[in-house]
Amino acid sequence: MDQESPLRSQHDEELSVLIGRSLLRLQDAVVTAMSHTRKKVLQGFVVFSVILLLLWLAAFLYGSFYYSYMPKAAFSTPVHYYYRTDCESPSSFLCSYPVANISLMRNKKHVLTFGQAYQISLQLELPESPTNQELGMFMVKTTCFSRDGGQIASSARSSMLRYRSDLLRTMGTLLFLPAFLSGAIEQKQMLEVELFSDFTDDPYAPSVTAVIEILSNKVQIYSSQLYVHAHFTGIRYLLFYFPVSSALVGVSSNFIFLSVLFILSYMRLLLRVEWKPEQLRTDGSVSERENMNSNEQEDEKDVAAGTAELLGPLQITPTNLSRERPQLHFGNGTELQNRHTLSQVEINETEAA
Hints:
Order of helices and strands: HEEEEEHEEHHEEEHHHH
Low-confidence stretches: 307-332
Helix content: 55-70%
Oligomer: single chain
Largest sheet: 4 strands, antiparallel
């Protein structure tokens, strides 16, 4: 029994050690898996944020390009005529032709884009009255003026009511009698008069106003409307008539371009980070060499200064040497000989003594 108890305790200890090691391994695996998952989630969030930002920038660039490049496709305004009624002629109530002055400015901006072709038309709502039936053809004249009053363009077009026989008008009246009585429909015709088929505004003298004149003082008009339609060609044609396809192509192109720029910038940043330690080493070695050279130069200067202090007044500069050399060559020869003889005599006396 006593021998079995130590064996059991040892076995329990080994089992606890194995369990502890397995738990530590499991904990390490869980921690690494959690950190790896957290890292992946963070990377995915960053990538998703970058892609979303690039898509938003691509859409913003395409929208800015579209609204700055595309002119207004259509423009309409009511036409109000004025005329004189102070005449004495009993044949006509109007003393002058109906004339309308229309502004081609909206919010202090030109309605027509420079370089863009437009189709300008006038819509007339005329009653099927005996006067208009007897009128026949009439002319519509249009003139565009610049800000300084100069004439830019002018046109004259003819129009008339559609012909309907008396029998046809009677049958139509009987057929649509309830609608006529209730006021749902009226006996009128809509005339479309094309004033300009291909009008292009002058950028140096843009059109500011348009004057429309109906060359008849007997015409009867319910209402009138001026329509301006743009004729798109090239890229503008694709952008206007295929907006979805153009938007997909434009946004995808901008997204690809921005993605390439972002990837190149990111790679350049990574390369800078990788090259930075090597650059520091090279810069450090170069700076050490420069410091050693400067120290050597300072030591040489100190040595030269020390020797200069030791020599003191005996120091002779090259200029002094150049000045003294001629004195040695051109000095008094007799004095030198006397000095030499005196020195020899002194040497002989000392030897004799």
